[in-house]
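Standup notes, protein team

Yesterday: finished cleaning the Frankia alni set.
Today: Membrane protein putative signal peptide structure.
Blockers: none.

Input for Membrane protein putative signal peptide:
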Amino acid sequence: MRSTDPRTYLLRRVRRSAVVFLLGLAVLVVGVVLNQVPLTVILGILGFLMMLFAALRGAADLRRISGRDTGGRRPGGRGRSKGRSRTKAHFMERVEERWRRRWEDRP
């Protein structure tokens, strides 16, 4: 097994996604040109799904290449598992206080 640069691998995946997208477009066009009702619908759906899959996969790979994909982490370097943010803590404290007052003020 040889090691390659992750960027090279991702670029290869982007190229494959572009080819699958164009193939899906071709399937969609062939479905429209054939003009046979059940076949047109099947080929149209198949071509659309191929294009959708290829576009989503290619966009995700491009995002990873550009470095904007943080993998579920915040850009500041701290993940969500490190603790609640200060704003969220204040919000929860206010909610708990309201809940406590609601039960204490009952007759």
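Follow-up from PR in the comments: The longest helix spans residues 37-66.
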